[in-house]
Design brief:
It is a single chain. With 186 residues, the protein is α/β, with parallel strands linked by helices. The chain contains 4 helices and 12 strands; from the N terminus they run ααβαββββββββαβββ. The chain has a single domain (2-183), classed as NagB/RpiA/CoA transferase-like (Rossmann fold, 3-Layer(aba) Sandwich). Strands 6-3-2-1-7-10-11-12 form an 8-stranded mixed sheet, sandwiched between helices. It is globular and about 40 Å long.
Length: 186
């Protein structure tokens, strides 16, 4: 299984990295618009929404934070707290961000538990299985929590027919791409 995932990670990273910067930025804006629409339809005002700072050519949704705060949502960002754990901290959408232990931008606010977690990924399938970078941070966090929605954020080129999944993998509820909002069926 590990070899299959490693090979698929390499393929999907190359596909995503192959998008030119202009196209990636335009698609990120469309994904962001779709995410806002999804939140307005499915998440009550006051819900805590976890966004993430894009790395390695991921879709960039962080620019949505001020709009979501203005619409009445609480925003938080993940922070890598240890080799095996992520935590979430509140962000007002405008305060400066700092790098966590992995060098990823994160907030310095109080700890919180998000109601909706936007999850970065390398690949996904319509069952809601995702291929991340292999550390398992999100799978471990999602497995411990019961009242949340997990939304994969991806470019359409990151879709594959089937992600190799293991028992510890936690499926997504939705995936949002520049083309559609996909309700996942496990």
């Amino acid at each position: 299984m590990t070899d299959a995932k490693t090979h698929l990670r390499q393929q999907l990273r190359a596909k995503r990295d192959g998008l030119d910067a202009w196209h990636r930025d335009a698609c990120s804006l469309t994904i962001g618009r779709r995410l806002v629409g999804w939140l307005m339809s499915y998440a009550p005002q006051g819900a805590c929404v976890s966004l993430f700072a894009a790395i390695r050519n991921e879709a960039d949704i962080l620019v949505l934070a001020p709009e979501l705060v203005q619409a009445g949502y609480r925003i938080c960002l993940p922070k890598v707290a240890s080799k095996t754990e992520i935590v979430f901290t509140v962000w007002d959408g405008v305060s400066p961000l700092v790098k966590d232990r992995q060098g990823i931008l994160s907030a310095t606010g109080e700890s919180c538990t998000p109601d909706i977690v936007c999850v970065p990924l390398l690949g996904f399938d319509r069952r809601g299985h995702r291929l991340g970078y292999g550390a398992g941070h999100y799978d471990r966090w999602l497995a411990k929590k019961t009242h949340h929605s997990a939304i994969g954020i991806a470019f359409a080129v990151q879709e594959v027919p089937q992600v190799p999944d293991e028992e510890h993998d936690h499926p997504l509820d939705w995936v949002i791409t520049e083309k559609e909002c996909i309700p996942c069926q496990v």
